[in-house]
């Protein structure tokens, strides 16, 4: 096998084949650790600071080792970048004949069966002209496309409602019973993934389909020698989502709609079926209407205080039971009716399980809670700990597992991550960024701000940020920990700009897609982008356009979140210290992500302003700033102004 040194050296294979490649000691060391982990089927948790080049550090040893590799990324954008750019570059440089497949979740592939159903549906639920035009575009695209990936059809917006009608869900897919099975795009993509050496997936797909074994992918994980998770800091949250259970009023309304179509096609004579569908539809809508608010989460004891909730839920269970019984009697008449019956049955079991009291339930390690969106209410049961469930998957058969990210540790300590993921036996290693942070960056924590719960906090933050924004001449991200704070910052900042006749363009998250806003931000060259969670991660703006990152306060998750508060209670009940063991590490990792937007290469320079006095006044504050890259620190505005003068001058 090729020596890794000859791959990563200044005059090595990567350097000769990849324009702009720079050799870095950290990258070679990381690649050697990964090669060693693959060879011994080990477990490695590896933090690599920005600029280490972690992607090449795992790709080269993984491609050289041979065997089947699954690489899972945090987002579809990163997935595309790996598949279209990074893997072909490394494969070409190493000259290794590996086959590579890109596999996305089923909602990304056009479903022939549901497309045909929609085309035949005379009672279309999508009656506006635009959607009919989109449907025709999709029909033509499905005929000429090789892979049926909806991202290949840019003339239909990604969020158009029509996609819902022409893609499948796990529930409404007919699998091998489907009349379009032989030409199915999704099945083809899965076949391709099973046959390829390297498969690029994302975390959602990994947990939903690979680990939890959707019927089409049962052989993918067992055949795999190495699993690599990039952006592995996101895994605890994704795993919680998929190891839990949920059912939404949206799924129940989908069931009523599909049952209606199937009833019209195959069971017109069954009047009871039509009545039962209508009753369930009403009960489902009534349940959503029991809550006036939207975008809120309630723990079970809190939602129970709503007197209308439990009767509406009981009514829904009754109507769903009735529909399920009638569908059972009609299931033989078509595959579609049989599928609806199975779905009704599985929703019913899940809701009944959700309704059990703690005494009746075997799942006492799950927290039950409700999430309400504008049109949908969702019942959730989330495990209090994912460690045991995840580590069971790791033990299933010998293979190498690699978890990497720029943000996994707290002051180079991985205990929290290892504990949360159940990775007790893992080796953990850390490589610092090769950037010269003490020269390139300044951490500014303004003196004199009140505590974040103070009612004038945001006003004071904006006041403190104003001179810094003038010194940086805009060119800033203003990252907020909540949407509410984001809006307040926007309103107060734009008012201050008007009052002082300042003309920096201000962009607010939500004014366009993330990629469109980033493009505008880069083009404007002196803009201020105010954002919340969407802009904390996975954003790469290099050079002068981004010279200042302001963070409104330390990103502690809201303690009234039902899952978080149940986890805090469990840790404290078991004698632990939930703040130090859970809340603080999560906040540190999140802060490191936000702060990581600032310095993206060795020529970047900039200021990180964290407007939270707790960083200097609380004992845990030291632990937080010591977890950040080693920047110079100040509480003086004059130092910030001098930094920008040097930078600009
Ligand atoms: S097998 Fe499933 S995804 Fe494929 S065409 Fe049929 S219903 Fe659609």
Bound molecules: iron/sulfur cluster
Total helical segments: 27
Largest sheet: 7 strands, parallel
CATH superfamily of the largest domain: P-loop containing nucleotide triphosphate hydrolases
Question: Gyration radius, to the nearest Å?
Answer: 27 Å
Helical content band:
40-55%
**Class from secondary-structure proportions:** alpha/beta
Instruction: Identify the CATH architecture of the largest domain.
Output: 3-Layer(aba) Sandwich
Description:
It is a single chain. It contains 27 helices and 18 strands. It is an alpha/beta fold and 649 residues long. The chain has four domains: 4-104 and 187-241 and 386-431, 3-Layer(aba) Sandwich (Rossmann fold); 110-167; 243-383, 23S rRNA-intervening sequence (de novo design (two linked rop proteins)); 437-648, 3-Layer(aba) Sandwich (Rossmann fold), CATH 3.40.50.300. A seven-stranded parallel sheet has the order 3-4-2-5-10-1-11, sandwiched between helices. Strand 8 and strand 9 (377-383) form a beta hairpin. Helix 3 (25-39) packs parallel to helix 4 and helix 20 packs across helix 21. The protein is globular, with a radius of gyration of 27 Å. Iron/sulfur cluster binds next to helix 6 and helix 9.
């Amino acid at each position: 096998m090729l020596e890794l040194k000859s791959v990563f050296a200044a005059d090595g294979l990567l350097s000769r084949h990849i324009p702009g490649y720079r050799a870095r000691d950290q990258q070679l060391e990381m690649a050697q650790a990964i090669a060693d982990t693959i060879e011994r089927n080990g477990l490695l948790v590896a933090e690599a600071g920005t600029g280490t080049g972690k992607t090449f550090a795992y790709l080269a040893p993984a491609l050289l080792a041979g065997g089947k590799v699954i690489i899972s990324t945090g987002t579809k954008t990163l997935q595309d970048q790996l598949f279209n750019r990074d893997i072909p570059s490394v494969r070409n440089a190493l000259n290794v004949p590996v086959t590579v497949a890109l596999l996305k979740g089923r909602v990304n592939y056009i479903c022939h069966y549901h497309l045909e159903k929609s085309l035949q549906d005379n009672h279309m639920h999508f009656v506006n002209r635009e959607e009919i035009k989109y449907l025709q575009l999709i029909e033509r695209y499905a005929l000429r496309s090789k892979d049926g990936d909806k991202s290949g059809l840019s003339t239909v917006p990604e969020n158009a409602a029509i996609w819902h009608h022409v893609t499948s869900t796990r529930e409404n897919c007919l699998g091998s019973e489907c009349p379009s099975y032989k030409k199915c795009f999704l099945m083809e993509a899965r076949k391709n993934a099973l046959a390829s050496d390297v498969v690029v997936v994302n975390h959602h797909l990994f947990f939903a389909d690979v680990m939890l074994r959707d019927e089409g992918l049962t052989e993918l994980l067992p055949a795999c020698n190495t699993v690599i998770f990039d952006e592995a800091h996101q895994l605890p949250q994704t795993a919680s989502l998929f190891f839990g259970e949920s059912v939404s009023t949206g799924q129940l309304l989908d069931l009523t709609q599909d049952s209606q179509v199937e009833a019209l096609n195959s069971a017109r004579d069954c009047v009871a079926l039509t009545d039962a569908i209508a009753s369930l539809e009403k009960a489902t809508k009534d349940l959503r209407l029991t809550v006036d608010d939207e975008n809120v989460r309630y723990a079970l004891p809190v939602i129970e205080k709503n007197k209308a909730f439990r009767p509406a839920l009981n009514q829904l269970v009754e109507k769903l039971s009735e529909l399920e019984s009638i569908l059972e009697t009609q299931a033989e008449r078509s595959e579609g009716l049989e599928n609806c019956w199975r779905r009704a049955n599985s929703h019913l079991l899940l809701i009944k399980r959700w309704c059990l009291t703690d005494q009746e339930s075997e799942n006492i390690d799950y927290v039950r809670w409700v999430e309400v969106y504008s049109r949908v209410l969702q019942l959730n049961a989330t495990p209090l700990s994912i460690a045991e469930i995840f580590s069971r998957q790791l033990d299933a058969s010998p293979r190498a597992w690699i978890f990497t990210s720029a943000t996994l540790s707290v002051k180079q300590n991985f205990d929290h991550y290892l504990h949360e993921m159940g990775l007790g036996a893992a080796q953990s290693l850390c490589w610092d960024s090769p950037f010269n942070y003490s020269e390139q960056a300044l951490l500014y924590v303004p003196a004199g701000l009140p505590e974040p719960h103070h009612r004038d906090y945001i006003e004071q933050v904006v006041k403190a940020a104003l001179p810094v924004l003038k010194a940086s001449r805009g060119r800033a991200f203003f990252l907020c920990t909540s949407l509410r704070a984001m809006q307040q910052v926007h309103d107060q900042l734009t008012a201050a700009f008007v009052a002082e006749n300042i003309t920096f363009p201000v962009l607010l998250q939500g004014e366009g897609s993330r990629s469109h806003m980033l493009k505008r931000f880069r083009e404007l060259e002196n803009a201020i982008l105010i954002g919340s969670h969407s802009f904390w991660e996975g954003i790469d703006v290099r050079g002068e356009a981004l010279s200042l990152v302001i963070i409104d306060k330390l990103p502690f998750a809201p303690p009234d979140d039902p899952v978080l508060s149940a986890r805090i209670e469990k840790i404290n009940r078991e004698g632990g210290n939930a703040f130090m063991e859970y809340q603080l590490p999560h906040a540190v990792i999140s802060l490191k992500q936000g702060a990581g937007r600032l310095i993206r290469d060795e020529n970047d320079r900039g200021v990180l302003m964290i407007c939270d006095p707790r960083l200097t006044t609380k004992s845990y504050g030291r632990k937080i700033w010591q977890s950040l890259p080693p920047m110079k620190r100040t509480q003086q505005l004059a130092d910030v102004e001098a930094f920008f003068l040097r930078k600009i001058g």
